[in-house]
Design brief:
about 240 residues, mainly alpha, 2 domains, 13 helices, disordered N terminus
Length: about 240
């Protein structure tokens, strides 16, 4: 038995479909300049997919000569620049994209990673700060900031970033493991031991790194028997997962 739809419902859905179709711009209706931008962008995308990044860059550049504010062409060109190691050129494109779309967090993420490639870690940190302002619930930028602080040997700031993650997700064993490592690096062995033990407690079956890190702490504390036990446990878990 088929269900019956009232004429009012049918009328509503037909009107909705018509409105959606009318709202879609067609290639033929677009201005000639826009059609050229779409053409070059589409050709560039196909070259990029095939791995011919230089040809892709040439086509995206043609599109941007016509419309310098075309976001799709610019972000695709930035990705192609990265594909051939032209990181500074990619950064310039991301700068332009963010100037045009300052409230899109993924563009800050892409620029941050590009800044990292260029060893502009201070600029990358600012990009991650902007992501946090746009989306305070995300943990990834805190992890990335912590990793950069470790690279800069600023272990206290790394610990602070991991602590922010733990405050929001107190069962995040990865955050405890990484904070334990950062505490170890700043020679706070008591805090490192506490963090790594908590990480193991939260997920003992997948705590190979936590066991390995804790073995180093036990060595520093002169507890060689416990250190060896943890090394063996880490080795066993790694062997199981291979």
């Amino acid at each position: 038995m088929t269900s019956k739809i009232s004429w009012r419902a049918r009328k509503f859905f037909l009107a909705l479909q018509l409105t959606s179709l009318l709202a879609l711009p067609t290639f033929a209706q677009a201005p000639q300049s826009k059609r050229l931008v779409w053409h070059y962008c589409n050709v560039g995308h196909k070259f990029a997919e095939s791995g011919d990044y230089n040809a892709a860059i040439a086509n995206f550049s043609k599109a941007l000569t016509i419309d310098p504010d075309d976001i799709t062409s610019r972000k695709e060109r930035a990705a192609s620049y990265l594909g051939v190691g032209r990181n500074a050129d990619a950064l310039a494109d991301y700068d332009r994209i963010i100037a045009l779309k300052p409230d899109v967090e993924r563009y800050y993420q892409e620029r941050a990673l590009t800044n990292e490639k260029l060893h502009r870690l201070d600029k990358a940190l600012l990009d991650y700060d902007q992501i946090i302002r746009l989306n305070p619930t995300r943990d990834t930028p805190h992890y990335r900031k912590a990793a950069l602080y470790e690279t800069l040997h600023d272990y206290s700031k790394a610990v602070a970033e991991y602590s922010l993650v733990i405050a929001r997700n107190p069962k995040d064993d990865e955050a405890y493991t990484k904070r334990g490592h950062a505490n170890f690096l700043r020679a706070d062995y008591k805090s490192a031991l506490k963090d790594l033990t908590e990480a193991i407690k939260l997920d003992p079956g997948y705590a190979a790194r936590a066991y390995a890190e804790r073995s180093k702490v036990y060595e520093k504390l002169g507890k060689n028997d416990l250190a060896e036990q943890d090394r063996q446990k880490a080795k066993s878990l790694n062997a199981r997962d291979q």
